[in-house]
Design goal:
It comes from Helianthus annuus (Common sunflower). Its EC number is 2.7.7.49. With 171 residues, the chain is α/β, with parallel strands linked by helices. Helix content is 33%, strand content 20%. The protein has a single domain (34-162), classed as 2-Layer Sandwich (Nucleotidyltransferase, domain 5). The longest helix is centred in the middle third of the chain and has 25 residues, at 81-105.
Length: 171
């Protein structure tokens, strides 16, 4: 701010052009009586080439519109796709618990478990199965809290999602 240059001016112009071109964009929230919280979670395994860390992403809907979304690099290097998805599901579960508490304070308590849609069957199995397995013992204990949310407290329900094969994207 103290010594703006031509570079800064060109970047500011680019931002203004973007804003002028997207004035008509927005999110649509339709009227509905079904005010249920629904989450989606996903990750890519070793998506960043510099440090081979995965990215977690989640989105939450309330009724017909998205009310929260997030994309973040994971703090750990996942050794499998199941671990990357499990970490992403754990992050989504934390967000869901926080949103459930906020909705309760706003007078829209969620009485049923919040469904979180996940496209990895191994992750769904891990969240519902309390046993430790030799193939999953590398997953940090701190990510297993999601099991208590699914099995004991029944605040979260992890559900499968069918993903389309990549070749459908090119048709």
């Amino acid at each position: 701010m103290q010594k703006p240059s031509v570079y800064h001016y060109s970047k500011a112009k680019r931002i203004m052009r973007y804003l002028a071109g997207t004035v008509g964009f927005g999110l649509w929230y339709g009227k509905t009586n079904n005010v249920k919280l629904l989450g989606f979670t996903d990750s890519d395994w070793a998506g960043t080439s510099e440090d081979m860390k995965s990215l977690s992403a989640n989105a939450f809907f309330l009724g017909t519109g998205v009310i929260s979304w997030m994309s973040k690099k994971q703090a750990v290097v996942a050794l499998s796709t199941a671990e990357a998805e499990y970490v992403a599901a754990g992050t989504g579960a934390c967000q869901a618990i926080w949103m459930r508490k906020m909705l309760k304070e706003l007078g829209h308590e969620q009485l049923e478990a919040t469904p979180i849609i996940c496209d990895n069957e191994s992750t769904i199995f891990l969240t519902k199965n309390q046993g430790f397995h030799s193939r999953t013992k590398h997953i940090s204990i701190k990510y297993h809290f999601i099991r208590s949310l699914v099995v004991e407290e029944k605040e979260i329900e992890i559900m499968p999602c069918v993903t389309f094969p990549k070749f459908f994207l090119f048709i």
